[in-house]
Amino acid sequence: MNQLQKEINKRRTFAIISHPDAGKTTITEKLLLFGKLIQQAGTVKGRGS
């Protein structure tokens, strides 16, 4: 199996579905941060903040 196929086989797809302002961006950033795919997560403020 070549390197490209190995990388493809490691990928997983999932969806985060919820009502508006439920923290989808925040949880997505945390998952990427804990998975070491990003080095820093930002801060997302609500409309009323």
Main sheet makeup: none
Q: Number of DSSP helices?
A: 2
Query: Radius of gyration from the CA trace?
Result: 15 Å
Mean pLDDT: 86
Number of strands: 0
Q: What is the succession of H and E elements?
A: HH
Beta-strand content: under 5%
Structure write-up:
The chain has 49 residues and is an all-alpha fold. It has helices spanning 3-10, 24-34. The longest helix is centred in the middle third of the chain and has 11 residues, at 24-34. The radius of gyration is 15 Å and the shape is elongated.
Please summarize what this structure is:
By secondary structure, the chain is an all-alpha fold. It is built from two helices and no strands. It has helices at residues 3-10, 24-34.
Quick tags:
single chain; 49 residues; mainly alpha; 39% helix; 0% strand
What's the helix and strand layout?
Layout: H1 3-10, H2 24-34
